[in-house]
Fold each of these.
Amino acid sequence: MVTPDTPVAHERRPLLAVVIAALVGLILGYAALLIVNAGIALVWETIPEMWGTTPAWYVIGVLVLAAVLVYVIRTHVGDAGHAPLGGIAISPLTPREYVGVILAILASLLGGVVLGPEVALVATGSVVGTVIAKRMRFTEPEDAKKIVGAGALGAILALFIGPVLAGSLSLDGAPDAVELDQLAWAIVVAIIATLAVAIARVVAALLARVAGSGPHLGVLVGASLVIAGSALAVQYFTGESVLFVVTSGEEMITELPTLTSVSTVALVLAFKALAYAVSLGAGFRGGPFFPAMFVGATAGLLAAVALPSGPSISAAMVVGVVAAVIATAPMKWPIAIVLGIVIGFVMGTWTLVPAALVGAVVARAIPRWADRMTPSRVDAAH
């Protein structure tokens, strides 16, 4: 029986915890992004500068070492992460689990594996949300899920803050007005970019079947040799830097227009896509989106330089990036449209947004037949 003196239990709302998790996640996520980028720059830019041309033994040695480290970390430290082929998953992550996850990601990314930093940020935000939910004693699963999600979302925002502040994704040569002929070309470019990513994902899915659900040293080392061979092939046949192949490559997108030879662009696209595929499926840790952006941008550039009176370089690269991102993970129509608008504006100006929207619609409309090659057990456990 309830009397006027009986205390009434009030449901605690996690709003404050959500805000705190988002803010802390943003700060630590941005710090994680800076650390990852600084490490990659040290290993793949600063150190190789002493030789001029990056020697083969260095490329092979760093990548093989990364493979061995990932195997040791996943086997002996912790294996709470998930396969990049499955996209990005947000789930509670304890500090102990985070150690194994972030070490495997750092070993992969600094080692030149063709995966992105986005998972490092998501993991950082997830552990922030998990700790805050526990400290503030939100034990209900739904409340904890909201707090963890807020931490991860805050960390993901760092991915936009970094490139926007640095201008690392902004392309030169954007038109002063919307060019209607680019809208038709956007359809062609979107199909090419989507196809390039889809083929890479099929190869990755086949490799993931071979690797199985746990870390496989032979597969990891073999994949590292394929990545190294791809980078060295581009350096040997084109004279361009191995940076056009190793690492996720988003920082090199603005350098792509310096490639004017059709054969050079085609080789970069082929070897980058191959390195991306084996990175996705071999058991490394990292994100799938940033390398896909590079593959899409290169596919767009190839269309621009290969097709007579074809699309402009800036429009083609923007459309290629939009299509590649949408081809990487299933998403609802509104999200695809928003991505088209945001990427079009960030990489160019408002004049490229219409072409980016066309690319988004085409990429979203193309059936995701590559996903049928990806077994659920690989997505969940590998």
Amino acid sequence: MKNSLIILAFFAAGVLIGALGDAGGWIPEALGSLSTYVLYVLMCLVGFGIGGDTDSLKVLKETNLKIVLVPLAVVAGSLGGAALIAAFIRGLDLQEVLAISGGFGYYSLSSLFITELRGELPGTIALLANIMREIMTLLMTPLFLKWAGPLGPVASGGATSMDTTLPIISLYSGKQYAVIALFNGIVLTVLVPFLVPFILSF
């Protein structure tokens, strides 16, 4: 829980600094790309950890086709959960709720698709909902691990399990599950550009 609080503190500090920067104009534009480079470093470090851990590759070999069930379960769970609560959400129809859930945390691309196809309101909701999915994974991974086991944080991370949430998944679930998280994130990331427009095409 300590690590989650530290992450929350850094997030809050980032929001504060960003707001002050916009107001005072003292943050250079180049700083906007800093997060990308930090992500590259994190990915590299996670890669070092996986590459040096023979158990990770062993898990991948042992799972074989079973590893495909992880992203399939995330898709079924996300869309199924969205379908159950769609009737209680005002201002959005079933397709829009399913499409928002079908972003799987890939907020940048899914929100653009939804905005283009359905307008600004569902697009903005998609952006916020998928950002919240990523933040909740970063903050609540210890609880997801306790409630749902090592694959809980992987499912929660969705498409982000291949990048932004991968380090914390690796930390709590174990390096052996980082391989599964990476595969899960890649599959969902590739799926989003096809699934979201498909849902909204009916």
Amino acid sequence: MPAERPDRARRGAVLIVGRGPTLDKLGDRLGQPVVQVENLMEAIGELTTLQPQGPFRSVIISAEVAKRATGRAIDALKLVDPSVEVLLHVAPPDDSIAASVIGRFDGHFLEPDQDESTPEPPEDRAVDSPEGEPEAVTPPQETAPAPTARPEPEEESASLADRASPEDELGDIDLIAATCADGEDVEAVALRLIRQQTGWSDVALLDDPAQAEAGASWAAVTEDEQCFGYLAATRAGQAEIEPWASWLACWLTFAQAWENHKKWAYTDDLTSVGNRRFFNKFLREAIAQARVQRRVVTVMVFDIDDFKLYNDRFGHEAGDEILRETVALLASVIRRGDRVCRIGGDEFAVVFADPEDPREPGSSHPDEIEQITRRFREQIASMRFPKLGIEARGSLTISGGLATYPWDGLTPDELLRLADQRAMQSKRKGKNVITFGPDAAEDSPDHG
């Protein structure tokens, strides 16, 4: 069985793709939350939807669905959720499932309570874990080729349009996958699909119809009064290209809406920085990258001392101004690869994850971060807030704590917990203090 992925450790939901007597009863047999859909398109939709029981642990695909699938369709599931385990439901050997499709699966799924009419699996194919949850099993050579090694998502540099070979037919599922995947070019995938469907080798999306070649037909790609450009091709007639322009406009509108919703989901409305959801995602990714590159990541947690008193005395409008100006000041002193996030009412977190060398020659990562936090603490204490009236200067202080990967913790939860504990230490020391490490090193007016 493949090693358990850490970010799936507490998942329990299973997504079943396909129908049939055995599959329809699989939920009762597993004793786990199950969602069942008809096809891979619906499966992608489920993976992109927040489930009440949490993210899916595994996707189990029936042999019948696998027969009609392409390798890219299986890859699309991983693009939507790289951590999900994609398993082929065990079935009698069937040569109609292409080897290129078999190779995309993480393994086979063998039901935990096979009946006597089903052939016993070989010794090296574990049936289930003590907890009764589904496990991936490696298919024997005589029934199907072993799954090929799958590169991790961050190692896949080619886009969907580039990965597909010339003979591969693209479809709507590829456009959905491109839309859901960060950094994928939906326009490139859509144009390639048009070329495959029409044979217009020179079809292109132009900024201005004047850029079209002589004799080319073109049509505006518009949706709800928004123009994405002009679709043009020399071998197309006007009546032929207009439907494709409308089709392309729909997909580009959908991709734009997806990006907007994703941005709203990760952004704090008041301060326009990352919210708690973004913080969790960014810190998890920063640690994973730091582990590979053998470098450190530091988390700072801080809040504004006695913020509630300011809100009560000067009103929420003044409180909102303090939060926005605090974020603006902090953004001006951190580095390009660092991120500020609002994770509570007046509680903020900063992930210091810039991969570039320190600005100060000869300085190390912790030294430079201490300089940044010291400068920030000093500047916030002398900042002007017009809505505070006569107390506009010198009336605000912050207290915070820092924790660094890998010395202080190996996971986001460990770092956040320790940084928060050190922030509480700063409060107990009289506030206007930032605590750095286990030896209670601190930055404060007395020590700065």
